[in-house]
Amino acid sequence: MLEKRLYHEQLFALTLTYPPSMDAIMDALQPGAFVHILPSPSESRQLFLRRPLSIAGLDREKRTVLLIVRVVGQGTEQLREVQPGTVLDVYVPYTHGFPIHNVKNGARALLVGGGVGVAPLLWLAETLHAQGARVTALIGFRESRDVFGLRTFEQWGDVHLVTEDGLSGKPGRVTEYVRDFSYDVLLSCGPEPMLKALAHITAGDSRPHYASLEARMACASGVCRACVVAVRSDVHADTGHHMVSTDDAARIQHRRVCHDGPVFSLSELVWRAP
Ligand SMILES: Cc1cc2nc3c(=O)[nH]c(=O)nc-3n(C[C@H](O)[C@H](O)[C@H](O)COP(=O)(O)OP(=O)(O)OC[C@H]3O[C@@H](n4cnc5c(N)ncnc54)[C@H](O)[C@@H]3O)c2cc1C
Ligand code: FES
């Protein structure tokens, strides 16, 4: 670990550095990718399971990775206590990130993020801007003290802030404002209620809509199936378009968030009942 920055007790950013031997792996990653990290240094190993964290920034020249972490339990709390200079045990899974190849030069990309779900959108905004897309970020946080990333988004496009406490930006939730924006493609990451609301708002809309999911994970290598989500098999995974189904009722399949995702077409996801 190179650097740690505390926003407040429950939110911090880490900059990690990786060795040249990992260049090929890191070069192949796309926004939406995540690392699977043991929260405590290898020698202490207090927790058995790794924790998935999105890559919020990747500088391939400096060989650094930025992570933004919200403390919600033991693992993230332990990670907060790790000091710069510590060697961490990090696994980089093979993932399917945001389909940036579908975002053409000049396309209007609306990035919708909630809470720490905003983290992967920072790297996504930079990447889409570099390939000529017009980026608008609509980001929401519960409290204004949780806000991060504004200046980064401003570098790559427009940014609109929403907070539930109403102390910064517009008051309320991001999903209340989505309809105010024109876009060609929508890419999102955030808590399940936000993604569910987005799916509801965009239902029947033929434009592509993507969501990065935060499932509970164990192996993060596609083996244990701890992270499966239900998807409709009659929706094209890449475009989100409905295909002709031989069945009236859509067939349900299961996909591993760690290996087949974490990014899915919003319209293919089948949400659990509340
Ligand atoms: C692909 C992916 C990317 C992620 N990116 C980030 C990120 O960039 N920054 C970040 O702060 N977090 C991110 N998360 C969530 C993060 O992995 C969890 O918050 C973390 O594993 C919790 O570990 P813990 O030991 O602190 O909490 P635990 O003790 O494991 O759990 C504490 C509480 O948090 C809940 N919880 C734990 N994990 C999740 C989860 N995945 N989704 C919803 N609730 C959960 C539990 O139900 C429990 O109530 C990501 C998750 C995934 C799957
Ligand atoms: S976490 Fe094991 S298959 Fe996804």
Automatic annotation (TrEMBL):
Entry's Gene Ontology BP terms: pyrimidine nucleotide biosynthetic process
**At which positions is FAD bound?**
R51, P52, L53, S54, I68, V69, R70, G75, T76
Q: Which SUPFAM superfamilies is this protein grouped with?
A: Ferredoxin reductase-like, C-terminal NADP-linked domain, Riboflavin synthase domain-like
Keyword Manganese found: no
Q: Please provide the record's keywords in A-Z order.
A: 2Fe-2S, Electron transport, FAD, Flavoprotein, Iron, Iron-sulfur, Metal-binding, Transport
Domain FAD-binding FR-type stretches = 1-100
Q: Which cofactor does it need?
A: FAD; [2Fe-2S] cluster
Task: Name the residues that bind [2Fe-2S] cluster.
Answer: C219, C224, C227, C258
Q: How is the cofactor bound?
A: Binds 1 FAD per subunit. Binds 1 [2Fe-2S] cluster per subunit.
Q: Which GO terms describe its molecular function?
A: 2 iron, 2 sulfur cluster binding; flavin adenine dinucleotide binding; metal ion binding; oxidoreductase activity
InterPro entries according to UniProt: Cyt_c3_hydrogenase_gsu, Dihydroorotate_DH_ele_sf, FAD-bd_FR_type, FNR_nucleotide-bd, PyrK_electron_transfer, Riboflavin_synthase-like_b-brl
| Recorded superkingdom | Bacteria
Give the family this protein belongs to, as stated in its UniProt record.
Answer: Belongs to the PyrK family.
This chain's protein is named Dihydroorotate dehydrogenase electron transfer subunit
**Origin species:** Candidatus Carbonibacillus altaicus
